[in-house]
Structures are given as C-alpha cells and as structure tokens.
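The record is passed on directly below:
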Amino acid sequence: MLSKQYIPSEKLKKQVLLKCLVCQKDFAIKLSRKNKAKYCSLKCRNKIQSKISKDYYSKKYPIGRKFKNQVGYIMIKLPSHPFADSSGYVFEHRLVMEKHIGRYLEPIEIVHHKNHIRDDNKIENLELFGSHSEHKKKHHSRLNENSNWKGGITYKVCEYCKIMFREHKESKFCSKECYWKSGGNKFWEKRWLKS
C-alpha cells in the first residue's frame, strides 16, 4: 500500500520538469535531454511537425504555382479542385475549358489542342470532346482540308500522276515508274548511259 507522502527515488532526482510547447502540460524528462525535449508526447510533436511541414510546403509550392510536366502539359497547383491529382495539381487546359463553359469537366471528357501544341492553352485552341472515342475519331478521321495527316500516317500527292500515296523517305513520287517517267535524276541517268 502506497503512503500519502511521495518520496522521489534516485532515478527521479535526475529528471527535470519542462512545459510542453503544444499543450502547456508539465512533463518530466531526463536531465541529459533537458535542452532537446520540447513536447510531452509524440502526439504533441506530430501536431506541431505537421503544421510546420504544411507551412513549408505551402510556401515552397503555393496554390496557383505552374510548371510544365514531362509530357509538355502545364499543371497548376489547386488542391481544392475536385479532380486534382494526389499532389494537388490540375491540367491548365482543363481549367481554361471549365472556366469557359462554366462548370467542372467530367473525368471522361477530353480537352483537345487543335494545333497539337500542349502548352498553348488559349480557348481558341481548345476543343471539348465527350469521350475518348470521340477524341480518337477526330485524330483518325479522313484527311482534313488543311492538313495531310491521317491517323498518324502522312500522305502526299505524287508529282507525276497526282495520286495520293503514303509518304516514305521524303519521296515526291508514289513509285519508281512515276519517278523515271517524270525525268528521274539526271545524275543517275548520265552514269547509266556511260556504262
């Protein structure tokens, strides 16, 4: 049975009472740790450390911070956005389109860059598609009036017969026949005539 009078042991004589910086409670600590200890528990230490790290990262990476990612798209720090990634960033072209139409974009909606320049986020250069399949159809459609690009393959018009052909090695002709019929390379013709 414990007596009412508390007699400190030798171990307790080597301790010092300090006040916790977070909860202001008194706590005992070894004399050797007197200059290092600031908190009564891990819970108090973690409270202050998380606040310090949040302050540090909010200064280092403030809201609205922009950077270009590895693929070439511009990202903006906006952790409050409902579709921000785990780091709190959103694609700038999606934000521009959201502002233009006045609502959040659905995750399946795709914003397309008309000129294929990923950091050109002017509203005139952006086009909204309802799904990935609609976006793919745009890329794999027939030749547009203003381009010769079809589904990742470049087509040209043969200079001799005027037929459209799949580009290969920067050729101006669709076949060897058209090349020779058009006059061919004068240098090679001269060499062939000599031999």
